[in-house]
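Bumping my old thread because nobody answered last time. Still need a sequence for this structure:
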């Protein structure tokens, strides 16, 4: 190995030591050795900042984006944390800043995360240099455990007292029932519990199957479309139902009047139907007799109509034979003439008949006048 090679190696070792020294100084003192642009400062106001100091890491969703530069107390209370953020780090005004205190698993960390709540289509505004935002500090795990220990102590004591009470009650039950009876009761209780659990398991399986069926029905696009259509038709259906109910109420009101009128008519008919009901058998017998007579009359009328329709009968021949009809017509005319002549003769006989009636009346009133007239030579009776 020549002298030049040794000098080269010494130079390389010295350069590497210098680089390592600069890196250590930058990591431990907050001095940044960067090849990119300078970081920009922002300020965060928090109520408290446990474990936060210079060079405390600042992260965005767990990724390192900067470090704390300084911390100051505020006059109105709280802590102002100044931090340097790497250029191009995605921090927005809507992000939530939370201080995670130091714990057994690591030092304190300031973390930014997306808080959401932006309207659809809008873009978040990035944080600019020198801007101040408000953050919050998460509870310290050690303080939470201490507070939990203080709060849980009385609860544990109460649980112990309750356990003592349950043990005392169990002893009293065993003393009352006896060991064998208590054992039998416990066995029965265990069997009943096992049966109940089996039934409960079957019920849950049935419920799961029912839920799956309901989910399948709900996810059916055809059924969903039908349900949506039915839901859209519900207001119109309700309006129509309301109108129908109103019309039904009006109809019932009118029907009530009709029923009242019918009741009045029935009351009036009751006075008529009650006597008829009392004479029911008699009226039934009369109705049967009337029907029988009507049937006989209809039979005779049918025979009469049949005889009339036959051409051999008198009326049939009169209807069907024109010569016979002419003869009958001539006979009726002659009969009318004879009746007229009889009427004239009757008019001529009216006076003698009147005189005869007067004579008979006188004879009836005074029969002795006939004998006296026959014996006497006086004038005759007129």
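Sorry it took so long. Here it is:
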């Amino acid at each position: 190995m020549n002298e030049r090679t040794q000098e080269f190696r010494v130079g390389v070792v010295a350069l590497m030591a210098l680089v390592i020294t600069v890196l250590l100084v930058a990591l431990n003192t907050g001095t940044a050795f960067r090849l990119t642009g300078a970081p920009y400062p922002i300020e965060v106001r928090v109520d408290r900042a446990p474990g936060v100091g210079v060079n405390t890491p600042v992260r965005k969703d767990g990724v390192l984006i900067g470090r704390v530069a300084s911390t100051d107390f505020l006059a109105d209370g709280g802590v102002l944390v100044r931090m340097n953020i790497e250029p191009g780090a995605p921090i927005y005004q809507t992000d939530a800043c939370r201080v995670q205190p130091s714990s057994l698993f690591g030092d304190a960390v300031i973390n930014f995360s997306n808080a959401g709540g932006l309207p659809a289509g809008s873009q978040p505004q990035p944080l600019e240099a020198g801007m101040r935002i408000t953050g919050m500090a998460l509870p310290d795990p050690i303080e939470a455990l201490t507070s939990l220990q203080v709060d849980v102590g009385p609860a544990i004591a109460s649980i112990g007292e309750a356990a003592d009470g349950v043990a005392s009650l169990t002893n009293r039950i065993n003393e009352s029932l006896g060991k064998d009876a208590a054992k039998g009761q416990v066995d029965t209780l265990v069997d009943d519990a096992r049966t109940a659990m089996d039934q409960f398991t079957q019920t849950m399986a049935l419920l799961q199957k029912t839920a799956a069926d309901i989910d399948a029905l709900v996810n059916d696009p055809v059924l969903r479309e039908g349900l949506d259509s039915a839901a859209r038709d519900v207001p119109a259906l309700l309006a129509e139902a309301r109108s129908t109910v109103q019309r039904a109420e009006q109809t019932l009101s009118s029907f009530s009047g009709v029923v009242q009128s019918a009741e009045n008519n029935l009351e009036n008919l009751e006075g008529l139907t009650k006597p008829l009901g009392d004479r029911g058998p008699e009226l039934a017998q009369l109705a049967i007799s009337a029907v029988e007579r009507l049937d006989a009359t209809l039979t005779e009328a049918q025979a009469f109509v049949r005889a009339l329709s036959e051409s051999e009968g008198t009326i049939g021949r009169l209807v069907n034979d024109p010569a016979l009809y002419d003869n009958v017509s001539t006979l009726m005319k002659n009969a009318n003439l004879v009746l007229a002549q009889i009427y004239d003769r009757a008019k001529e006989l009216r006076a003698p008949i009147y005189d005869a009636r007067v004579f008979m009346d006188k004879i009836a009133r005074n029969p002795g006048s006939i004998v006296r007239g026959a014996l006497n030579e006086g004038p005759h009776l007129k």
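Residues 220 and 335 are 103 Å apart (CA to CA). Let me know if any region looks off to you.
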